[in-house]
Amino acid sequence: MLRTISAVLSAVLGLVLVAPAAQAAPAACAPVDWGSGDKYLYEGHAPYLTDIRAGRHECYDRLVFDIAGTPGGYSARYVPEITHDASGEPIPVRGGGKIQVTTYSPAYDENFDPTYEYDDPMELVDVTGYTTFRQVVWAGSWEGTTTVGMGVRARLPFRVLVLTDRLVVDVAHTW
């Protein structure tokens, strides 16, 4: 009996000593003061759009508009539904919140040749598994602007950043 207890204790102790250390929990995200209100900036029209891509971060999801030069501005706001440029036709979008982003950069050059092309207007970027993003859709490029719709989990705070050659939209995972 004593030998059995000793063997069990040795086995348990051995497991404890060789078990990997527990992974540290990710740092809590600091509350953001970005808000969910309309955001806009206009400094004129800019060079054309070259790409749209997304990234995941610990505290927010990010959508990036690559521009062939300095962005001229944007309009970003929560809307009841995403609509096509010019026609105003609604576009179905997954998610409890919908952000319509317009950049003052066309998706075509001075000869009206496309500078940004996509395979599926209903899935511009694969956001499968993202914490906040649910879908990114094409809403058109017309009269020097390009519009994209973002389906997000809920109405959450977001910010827009203008960088040297890109426009960035971050949507927080929580308030």
UniProtKB/TrEMBL annotation:
Residues 1-24 form the signal peptide. InterPro entries: AMIN-like (IPR056303). The keyword Signal applies. Residues 48-173 form the AMIN-like domain. Keywords: Signal. Pfam families: AMIN-like. It comes from the Bacteria. This is AMIN-like domain-containing protein. It comes from Saccharothrix lopnurensis.
